[in-house]
Amino acid sequence: MRILLTNDDGIHAEGLRVLEGIARSLSDDVWIVAPETDQSGLAHSLTLSDPLRLRKISDKHFAVRGTPTDCVIMGIRHVLKGKPDLILSGVNAGSNLADDVTYSGTIAAAIEGTIQGVRSIALSQAYRHDAEGRFIPWSVAAHHGVDLVRKLLPIALPEGTFLNVNFPACAEGEVDGLDVTTQGKTDFALVVDERQDGRGNPYFWLRFSDRKGRLMEGTDIAAVRANRISVTPLQLDLTDHAAIKNLSAALGVSR
Hints:
alpha/beta; nine-stranded mixed beta sheet; 15 strands; 30% strand; globular; cytoplasm; SurE-like_sf; metal-binding; EC 3.1.3.5
């Protein structure tokens, strides 16, 4: 099995090393094509106005000066010159739950892999804050990732569907099982912080306000907060099929 790995945290990210360990437990034909630098929050963006730079780091390890979507395309079309059997994206430093999937470069790489006709799985590791700051329990993904991916591989999925996996922010021995979940909903707003540089010119930082996830049963948020692994099937089709009948009636369009 040929596996292509990528992420949005960059080629030197700890989560990518964790993902490589997971992949090498499944196959000895593992390739990495990942962004040269952190590309978090760029979603499913393409680099169209600048050239892409590809740097070979070592055997089967490549860095692209571009987005996660660029990396998947470069991996398939140029580095491998063909489709792999599996694309794994991550392991992201931080969860990708609920509305976060629309911003996530980790998810975007799985989206692009699915568009290219390759089974794709995005993996993310939730973190917590302690007295020393942010703590990411990578051992959870490392310990549980291999068996989980192995179980997911033979499962038949509809065309255009990929999987979003989130590991909880607990000790590896405290994981309380696994849930197949729906995409949850968070209540937050992006805040614009205005600051000044050394010459008094304004600049701005975007940051998230306090996030309050709706703990609805069966959602990805509820599972991860209960120290359970969340597996959410997501799809490329963004059509609101339930709204088609009412919309057609209101516009006088027959269906």
